[in-house]
Amino acid sequence: MAFPTKVKIVEVGPRDGLQNEKETISAEVKIELVDRLTDAGFINIEAASFVSPKWVPQMATSTEVMAGITRKAGVIYSALTPNMKGFEGALAAKADEVVIFGAASEAFSQKNINCSIAESIERFRDVAQAAKQHNIRLRGSISCSFGCPYQGEVSPESVADVVRRLKDLGCDEIDIADTIGVGTPRHVQKVMERAAKEFPLAQLSGHFHDTYGQALANIYAAMEVGVSTFHSSVAGLGGCPYAKGATGNVSTEDVLYMMNGLGVETGIDLDKVVDAGQFISKHLGRKAVSRAGNAIAAKRAG
Ligand SMILES: CC(C)(COP(=O)([O-])OP(=O)([O-])OC[C@H]1O[C@@H](n2cnc3c(N)ncnc32)[C@H](O)[C@@H]1OP(=O)([O-])[O-])[C@@H](O)C(=O)NCCC(=O)NCCSC(=O)C[C@@](C)(O)CC(=O)[O-]
């Protein structure tokens, strides 16, 4: 498989990045963040999550955020929808894509969405049908594809099994997620190649957290086997509420810096992403978790 010359970067900072923040972030700040990211050129931004506010309080403003953002034609604004209640919220908020999120680990499925993998697929079936009826794009996400904080090892076969089930539900894209950032490059290639036997490689994406500092290497390794869609988070925001110790997604600024150096097209303006990263980091009162973002900001400051 040829090394991609062009990649799609899905910006997940406004959802995955912010969902774990303890202090409530106002809808206005989230809206400004999404608008800055739209202006930077992303064609897919994960902006909201229609989950129980008791489970993830930070996402309770999702309706306001979706209503307040300035949408650009052609940009897909995605929202997480674990069940029909979530789907109804996303539909009312005019999400362009809904995300059903399961896991390759039974233990994580229980902790994250309070049901087994098989039960989750049944819940997702209704969401998938509704999404198709309303012509809304459907994405599936598979947590713990490289390891689980509760059960440890996760086999490529377990990932492939969930990929097959999500494919049967009609997903347009499927994310292979390293929730706790334990994957390493050869492992990533093995899992991606196995997943690609079940679902077209062009519609698979890599969602890497950088907990063990492997995310950029893992992205490069996934590109070597032909994966061309990746998730990242501005300023390296994030951490999963149900994966203790998990740090943020790989930082978007770092990914873009690497892609620019490789001459791989992204369509995204790195300088504007650095600005967005500095904006949200300032708001959160801490430094961005992005080597490239902080280096560029420091260079600009002289
Ligand atoms: C899935 C549920 C809802 C099941 O939770 P449950 O308790 O089993 O659900 P339930 O159907 O029994 O409902 C219980 C209560 O929740 C309400 N409820 C039920 N559904 C909704 C909804 N959609 N929106 C708002 N409220 C909802 C429902 O109305 C009821 O309210 P009550 O009567 O007690 O007042 C719950 O477990 C949940 O919300 N979990 C959140 C999980 C989550 O958001 N995790 C983080 C995102 S996943 C992630 O970050 C990983 C990813 C995608 O990034 C990839 C990776 O890196 O791994």
TrEMBL record:
<dbReference type="InterPro" id="IPR013785">
    <property type="entry name" value="Aldolase_TIM"/>
</dbReference>
<keyword id="KW-0479">Metal-binding</keyword>
<dbReference type="InterPro" id="IPR000138">
    <property type="entry name" value="HMG_CoA_lyase_AS"/>
</dbReference>
<dbReference type="GO" id="GO:0004419">
    <property type="term" value="F:hydroxymethylglutaryl-CoA lyase activity"/>
</dbReference>
<protein>
    <recommendedName>
        <fullName>hydroxymethylglutaryl-CoA lyase</fullName>
        <ecNumber>4.1.3.4</ecNumber>
    </recommendedName>
</protein>
<dbReference type="GO" id="GO:0006552">
    <property type="term" value="P:L-leucine catabolic process"/>
</dbReference>
<dbReference type="GO" id="GO:0046951">
    <property type="term" value="P:ketone body biosynthetic process"/>
</dbReference>
<comment type="similarity">
    <text>Belongs to the HMG-CoA lyase family.</text>
</comment>
<keyword id="KW-0456">Lyase</keyword>
<dbReference type="InterPro" id="IPR000891">
    <property type="entry name" value="PYR_CT"/>
</dbReference>
<feature type="domain" description="Pyruvate carboxyltransferase">
    <location>
        <begin position="7"/>
        <end position="274"/>
    </location>
</feature>
<comment type="pathway">
    <text>Metabolic intermediate metabolism; (S)-3-hydroxy-3-methylglutaryl-CoA degradation; acetoacetate from (S)-3-hydroxy-3-methylglutaryl-CoA: step 1/1.</text>
</comment>
<dbReference type="GO" id="GO:0046872">
    <property type="term" value="F:metal ion binding"/>
</dbReference>
<dbReference type="InterPro" id="IPR043594">
    <property type="entry name" value="HMGL"/>
</dbReference>
<dbReference type="Pfam" id="PF00682">
    <property type="entry name" value="HMGL-like"/>
</dbReference>
